[in-house]
Amino acid sequence: MLRICRIANWFKPADKACEDALYDLPAFRELCKIDLGRERVPDATALRNFRHPLEQIDLGKR
Questions:
Q1: Closest C-alpha to 24, from 7, 10, 46
Q2: Of 16, 45, 18, residue with least CA distance to 32
Q3: For the chain, which terminus, N or C, has the lower number of CB atoms within 10 Å?
């Protein structure tokens, strides 16, 4: 999840766009170590729920 948050921080897509990019772009999946044959891409709600507490303490900017 932290790697997905880094992609979102670098490219600034919305959570749904980040989810779609992980399905569409093999390079993003490889960077995040997601194998679609064994696991699903986290949905936009899971991404938002993981990212929100990090943003509250400004961890994304560091």
A1: 7
A2: 18
A3: C
